[in-house]
Task: structure prediction
Amino acid sequence: MTFKGRDIINIKDFSREDLEHIINVAFEMEKMPRGDAKNILQNYITACLFFEPSTRTNNSFQTAALRLGANVLDPDLMEGSSITKGESFNDTIRMFDSYTDAIVIRHPQINTAKIAADIAKNPVINAGDGPNQHPTQTMLDLYTMKKEKDRIDGLKIAMIGDLKYGRTVHSLATALTRFSPDYVAFVSPDELKMPEVYIRSLKNVCAEVEEFERIEDLPRDIDFIYMTRIQKERFENLEDYERLAGVYQFSLKTLNHFNDSVRIMHPLPRIEGPKCELLPEVDNAPQALYFQQAANGVPIRMALLALVLGAVE
Ligand code: NCD
Result:
């Protein structure tokens, strides 16, 4: 199996063996002394092209590149680029491809990472294309599950929130079809349900798949709750967003419904204030895993950059 030169566009392009290999390399990256890691991508340059806001994905990719000794081109939200002068997306990608060794890209439109990968000679990594896919988030989610429970097969997982527009849950649901989860539940308001296509393919591998509208209807023995934000920026009608934001407010009381062995994940960001879907009072509970999950983005992205640039096998 070689990853050298490979684009990372859609999680469905990755087999179980691929995903397990990436997770194993991430474990090695996490253990590696900083002085050793620093030599892995010396003299390489990566570009982080973000056409949509990002805190974790952008900065953890940059941290990963810097920890490996690479340099990073990071045009601030692409606002300083010639795109604002009317330059085409294709020409912009061609330029960054000629200056750098790999491109990490986030864009509000579906399929943009694929279009960039078709133009670029060097590897392109999808850091989120609209409501479609977020494959590297899923890899860090799987890494987090493996680290916490030492397995991905046989788990009971519940995804909660905006399952219609949330790209993280679309990628995660697809990745789980490579494993054998014991039970997967989707909890959302009727208008924000998980698209049928993801449910259908999960039913082929998973003993039981259920849908609910209320968190309280979930079984108590869930291993991982995966909360998500209602995706304001994807709504055509802001009134619909206002009506649906805040439908779930995971609190310490909600946590009580589950066994102590449950772990709470969230790709973050969560909404601040009265519509918050995961209350800060949960942060100090031993079940809260979301900040650790975000930190796991660094070793996973170190593994991915080193693999696609051919610096590790
Ligand atoms: C997610 C995203 O951008 O899709 N954030 C992230 O990358 N950690 C989730 C979200 O924005 O709700």
Notes: Residues 56-57, 128, 134, 137, 167-168, 229, 267-268 surround N-carbamoyl-L-aspartate (CB under 6 Å). Residues 121 and 184 are 38 Å apart (CA to CA).
